[in-house]
Design goal:
The complex is a heterodimer. Chain A is mainly beta. Chain A has strands at about 5, 10-15, 20-25, 30-40, 45-50, 55-60, 60-65, 70-75, 85-95, 95-100, 105-109. Helix content of chain B is about 0%, strand content about 50%. Chain B has strands at about 5, 10-15, 20-25, 30-35, 45-50, 55, 65-70, 75-80, 90-95, 105, 110-115. In chain B, a hairpin with a 6-residue loop joins strand 7 (about 65-70) and strand 8. The chains are: A mainly beta, B mainly beta. The interface between A and B is medium-sized, with 21 and 23 residues.
Chain lengths: ~110, ~120
């Protein structure tokens, strides 16, 4: 089955700086790569996603890049704000989602 | 229909009891998924349905777990003879296989505590 690895497990950044989270996947058939933000006690919320026929996608301060050859994809958050503090999960999918272990992001004011 | 609904939100049960959770997906979604999430971990896939057919079950899903989706609408997840290791957040998600981004949407989850 699909195996998704996510790094780092924790990330502390100064407000206004950028945050980068990286994931690798094992199944070359995976074709959909969403990123979720989860706050304590709440459901995972989709923040951005990318399909395998696209290399990069941007939505305001958030961008995702995908390298299918290397089987890795990354989340970039620019101009971080305290409300960006949360746990972020990457996932890879053919139909069901296989999640990474998560990155706890702390934005220091 | 504003999203995926799960009921109950919280369940505390004694070890050995049976529990049942319900998930109501987004009405036009034909796929429904169950995941389990423990503290500090990402959600783990348990099983999924396309319409009323259960198409895949994870090896995590022991014989004590059973899921149904009669008529292809809501789904139930039953855990028999609960164990303390079953304590977790049980998340339901739905999607449509023909949507451009599949439309994955998670419910708020049912937090199970086995005492």
């Amino acid at each position: 089955g699909e195996n998704v690895e996510q790094h780092p497990s924790t990330l502390s950044v100064q407000e206004g700086d950028s945050a980068v989270i990286k994931c690798t996947y094992s199944d070359s058939a995976s074709n959909y790569f969403p990123w979720y933000k989860q706050e304590l006690g709440k459901r995972p919320q989709l923040i951005i996603d990318i399909r395998s026929n696209v290399g990069e996608k941007k939505d305001q301060r958030i961008a995702v890049t995908l390298n299918k050859t290397a089987k890795h994809f990354s989340l970039h958050i620019t101009e971080t704000q305290p409300e960006d503090s949360a746990v972020y999960f990457c996932a890879a999918s053919i139909h069901k989602l296989s999640f990474g272990a998560g990155t706890t992001v702390t934005v220091r004011a | 229909d504003t999203g995926v609904s799960q009921d109950p939100r919280h369940k505390i049960t004694k070890r050995g009891q049976n529990v049942t959770f319900r998930c109501d997906p987004i009405s036009e979604h034909n796929r429904l998924y169950w995941y389990r999430q423990t503290l500090g971990q990402g959600p783990e896939f348990l099983t999924y349905f396309q319409n009323e057919a259960q198409l895949e079950k994870s090896r995590l899903l022991s014989d004590r777990f059973s899921a149904e989706r009669p008529k292809g609408s809501f789904s139930t997840l039953e855990i028999q003879r609960t164990e303390q290791g079953d304590s977790a957040m049980y998340l339901c998600a739905s999607s449509h296989d023909r949507a451009s981004n599949y439309g994955y949407t998670f419910g708020s989850g049912t937090r199970l505590t086995v005492v």
